[in-house]
Amino acid sequence: MTSTDCLRLVEAEMGVGERLLQVGFMRRFDQGYLDMKAAVDGKRFGSPLFLHCIHRIATAPHYFKTELIPFASAVHEIDAARFGLGEEFSRVSVHPGRPSANAPERYPLLFIFQSASGVLMDVEISTDAQYGYDVRAELVMESGALALVVAGRDFAVATSGVAERGPHIVNPHTGQPATELASITVVGAGLTLTDAYATAAFAMGPEARDWVESLDGYEAFAITARGADWQTSGFRAYLT
Predict the structure, then answer these.
(1) Alpha-carbon torsion (178, 181, 186, 191), positive or negative
(2) Quick one: which of 89, 81, 88, 92 has its CA closest to 138?
(3) Domain with CATH 3.10.520.10 in the chain
(4) Exposure winner among 34, 78, 152, 157, fewest CB in 10 A?
C-alpha cells in the first residue's frame, strides 16, 4: 500500500464522520487491554505491582533474526504496557535463552522492565513455540489480579464493554445506557451471533447470566461495574 492509498483511506474515513480504521499498535484497541487500563485508572484493585506478558508464535520466517525480536515482537507488549500502566519504563534488561532445536539460529528472549513508579514487567518472547499465535497478560495488583486467557479451536470470542466508548449500549427496556456491567465476553460457534449476543447480554446487565445459560452452545465471563466477576457454568472449559 502506497502513501497515496493511505491518504485515500484516511480521507474516506473522514468523509464518513466516524472512526473505522486503526493504525499502529493493535493491543490498545483490544477490549481486554482496555479493561486492564480501566482497572488501573480506576484503582479497582489498588495499584499495579507486576505485569506478566507472553508472546508466542508457531515459527518465525527464516530471515527473522534474534536482533529483530525487540523491534518486531516485544515492541507490542511494551506499547500495551505503557498504554495500560500510563507511564514510561526506567530500566530494562534482556536475557537470551537456550535456542530451540526447531530454530537453533534464534534465541528466545526474556525482557524485564521496571516502570518509573516501580512496577515490574516481564515479557517472554518465543518465536518458535510450534503453536500460536498466543498472547497473554496478567496484571497483579495490590488486592487482586486481572488475567483472562481463552483458548481452543473452531469457536468465536466477542466482548462488549464501556472501556473504549463509554456507556454506549442502551437497555431497550429503560431507554438508558446499560451501566451494570463493565464488560462481558461471550464464546460461541459463530462470530456474527456471538458478537450480537455479547451486545445483548451487556444490555441485560444482571439478567445476562441466566440468559446466556439458556443459550445452546454459548458461555460468558463478565466483570461488573463494581469490579466483581462471574462466569456461566461452562465457561471454565475455555480457560487455560
Answers:
(1) positive
(2) 81
(3) 156-238
(4) 152
* CA 2 to mean position of chain CA atoms: 30
Q: What are phi and psi of 67, to 5 degrees?
A: -65, -20
DSSP SS3 for 82: helix
CATH topology of domain 27-147: Dihydrodipicolinate Reductase; domain 2 (3.30.360)
* Long-range CB contacts (within 8 A, 24+) of 63-70: 64/106, 64/127, 65/105, 65/106, 66/96, 66/106, 66/107, 66/109, 69/109, 69/125, 69/127, 70/94, 70/109, 70/111
- The mean predicted confidence, pLDDT, of the chain is 87
Instruction: Decide: helix, strand or coil at residue 112.
Output: strand
Q: What is the pLDDT of residues 38-62, one digit of tens each?
A: 889 998 889 999 999 999 888 888 8
